[in-house]
Amino acid sequence: MSVSARHLDRVASLGCVLCRHLGQGATPAQVHHLREGQGMGQRADDFLTIPLCPEHHTGQSGIHGMGRKAFERAYLPEMDLLAMTIELLEKDRS
Predict the structure, then answer these.
(1) What digits encode the pLDDT tens for the residues 41-65?
(2) What string of H, E and C letters represents the secondary structure of 20-89?
């Protein structure tokens, strides 16, 4: 298994970072790739990823359902969710 694949598995295993933030506990998650600084034709970096439940990822109240700007207004910026994800990954290593 590649380093990227192991990282993506670890991220998904954390559960939805937004559900955690909202006090809903760790719900099953899909991996969402942040597209920070990238054009649409470029491949997203596997290490710029956050775990989101299906609703917060692709549902009506999700980043792909609402669009990034509306999602960030309703919840938190993607970069804040990335920082929370990194913190959870660090705790998980301990």
Answers:
(1) 556 788 999 999 999 999 999 999 9
(2) HHCCCCCCCCEEEECCCCCCCCCCCCCCCEEEECHHHHHCCCCHHHHCHHHHHHHCCCHHHHHHHHHHHH
Distant-in-sequence contacts of 30-36, Cβ < 8 A, 24+ apart: 30/54, 30/57, 30/58, 32/57, 32/63, 34/78, 34/79, 34/82, 36/78, 36/79
Residue 88 CB: number of other CB atoms within 10 A? 19
Assigned fold of 3-93 = Herpes Virus-1 (3.30.40)
Domain ranges of the chain: 3-93
Q: Calculate the alpha carbon distances from 21 to 39, 42, 43 in Å.
A: 29, 30, 28
Q: Is the dihedral of CA 76, 81, 83, 84 positive or negative?
A: positive
For the whole prediction, is pTM greater than 0.70? yes
